Give the backbone structure.
Amino acid sequence: MERRSSGKRRGGLDALREFLRKPAVRNERTLAEARKPLKEAEAIDVEILGRRIENEHRQLAHVAKQFRLVVAAQRCSETGGVDGFVAVLKDLSGA
């Protein structure tokens, strides 16, 4: 799955990671202060990715329901019987 993120934000996080790797940054307090927002930003990225996956699953379920309706409507038009179509409608509505 493609991971989409704000280029500006991603670039900023990458720049901060590179800065923290430099030997010149030796002050532990500075490192700790810089790592905290980095970890918070990474946690937000993970949450966003999780929400995106959930949304894509919902979209897929919606498309599957639409497909079932189209197939049932096609069968109804071919056979002239509406019982199968009504059954699919009831099933999809949870009735």
